[in-house]
Amino acid sequence: MRQAGRISARALALGGEAVRPGVTTAHINKVIHDYIISQGAKPNFLGLYGFPASACISVNDTVIHGIPSTAQVIHEGDIVSIDTGALYKGWHGDNAGTFVAGTASDEAARLIEVTKQSFYEGLKMAVVGNRIGDISHAIQQYVEANGFSIVREYVGHGVGSELHEDPEVPNYGHPGRGARLVPGMTLAIEPMVNAGAAAVRQLPDGWTVKTRDGSLSAHYEKSIVITANGPVILTDPN
Ligand code: MG
Question: How far is 218 from 191, CA to CA, in rounded Å?
Fold first, then answer.
């Protein structure tokens, strides 16, 4: 899973570097796809539940599951969430991040930073003996204390020989609830955070999820493993 995670993380980083004004979301997807294939791995998003690309690319008020398109051009100041992963030697990596084309507004920059930091607040609680709810609660508390909203309809998950496994890892909840964390448990923790209200809607394409109020949304995700010595990030580019 470290090897699958490394490929996933490098693919995400390359996708992030490709985010700039004037490129299409299809171009970003191709950069990611080609890299994963070049590593002898498989893009694990491609074809999953019928998804037609190797990365979900979600711009501005799109929360998740944006479908890359040759018709969608990135503009100066856009924020672009990329979610992607690789299947390598039977194991999955899954990770996401939000990148800026050019220069972000102050609000967008703060949203991205709070979303990233909320992952790390959750990660602090990802220790043996705690429960899933401790991670969930820490993420929610941090996001809401910073004036943003947590998306409820989509959650993190176990990850391993399948991309999506039990248990679910919600980004909201109560401490002390849910499955107990044990060494060897591998999870994808992935806060999705809206600048405005939490409500989302799905477009008729059956994939694209947008904020209902049109506010910006950001995403941050890494795959991790629980160990006796604390959590270790598996989607590490190094
Ligand atoms: Mg995931």
Answer: 8
Gap from CA of 120 to ligand 1 centroid (Å): 16
* Contact predicate 119/221, CB 8 Å: yes
Q: Which tokens in the block code for residue 27? A: 């171009």
Q: Residue ranges of the chain with pLDDT lower than 50?
A: none
* pLDDT value, residue 154: 98
- Ligand 1 centre from 3 Cα, in Å? 17
**What's the pLDDT at 165?**
97
How far does residue 188's CA lie from ligand 1's centre (Å)?
A: 6
In the block, which residue shows the tokens 């190797």? Answer: 54
Rounded to 10 degrees, what is the CA torsion of 170, 175, 177, 178? 40
CA of 202 to the centre of ligand 1 (A): 18
